[in-house]
Amino acid sequence: MIQLIVFSISLLFISPITVPMVPTQLKSTMHSANLTIKTEKIGVRDAKEVFKYTLENGSMRVEMTNFGGILSRIVVPDKNGKSENVVLALEDISDYFTKNGPSLGAAVGRYANRISNASFPLDGKTIEVTKNIPPNHIHGGTIGFSKKVWDANTFSNAEEVGVKMHYISADGEEGFPGTLDTWLTMSLTTDNKLIVKFESTTDKKTIVNLTNHSYFNLNGIVGDVREHQLKIFADSYTPTDVAQITTGEVVEVKNTPFDFRSAKNLGEKIDELGRGFDENFVTKTKNSPDLIQIAWVKDPESGRTMNVFSTAPGVQLYTANGINDFAGADGKIYQPFWAFCLEPQAWPDSPNRPNFPSASLSPGEKYIHEIVYEFGVDN
Predict the structure, then answer these.
(1) pLDDT tens digits, 120-149
(2) In the annotation, is 159 catalytic?
(3) Distance between CA 313 and CA 63 in Å, rounded?
(4) Catalytically annotated residue among 137, 213, 228, 369
(5) DSSP conformational letter for 158
(6) Is 343 designated active site?
(7) Residue 268: helix, strand or coil by DSSP?
(8) Catalytic residue among 343, 369, 370, 374
(9) Predicted local confidence at residue 103, as pLDDT
(10) Which candidate in 69, 109, 145, 233 could, as Cys together with 210 as Cys, close a disulfide (CB 3.0–4.6 Å)?
């Protein structure tokens, strides 16, 4: 028997909506049916108030903060009904201010993933952005979206409770052109969906590639994820060089360690490759609004499963290769392969690869991205 607990992460751009403001205070709680949201002031960062938000619906709990748009915990039950956190986390929200080098659970942008030589052509000009992994760029720069304090309001209705966050990235921030006006909404529904929406517009042609950077471990983070079973619905991938910059090629996964078209033991594939994964898999060859399944994951021990759906043309598989002796929540010391990221997004270095789907955004356009993470239990 398979029981599904559904979490939907939807990243799209729509007109801003008005939501009720929660007065600034140490703690507040809003109720609607079985839904609750608690707001706790953590402190002040960059002259702005930082809050921790705890959303519950009677069967699951999600914790988040307006610092970095971070999902700090997602607590779900296993096949025996035991509820555990399934994302790598830091102990306290304030720890994210200075200790979140891996971008745990964060909203990353303006451009998730890498840009070669920290530059790209745009309308006949060469745009230079921050070289935060010299000579290249990654995840929006030195102080990207994951390190910003977003303005935030809480809201509640009969079907969901959530937080709507807003950040305006100034023209030239980290080198990117155009004023990018971005809204991030994260909410929990009565039917067990965690919904995340990004909405952006620009006043000047630019590039944009936003995603959530959660590190999943379906066994409740009691060890590594090598025994997880993984399937990725992709016939090809984009290889990288020794600096992890895409070569511009699109290669079939057949007869390579990157073939996850049928479910494979993640540890066995890591051993076959001889290292951890940090590659983009091609889920579409062109941009489209179609929501398709891109991955399936199962932890045999806990019985937890996760289906992943997205409208993006690619998904980055990262197996936490760079995490070594990292002090996480609950006294745990995270190690390589203790989690996996499935980051639906534009293909890496798209602005420098004319054969890749475009990641540009012009005035009057809306960037649309939708992701669905569907959690279940397989007995």
Answers:
(1) 999 999 999 999 999 999 999 999 999 999
(2) no
(3) 29
(4) 213
(5) S
(6) yes
(7) helix
(8) 343
(9) 97
(10) 109
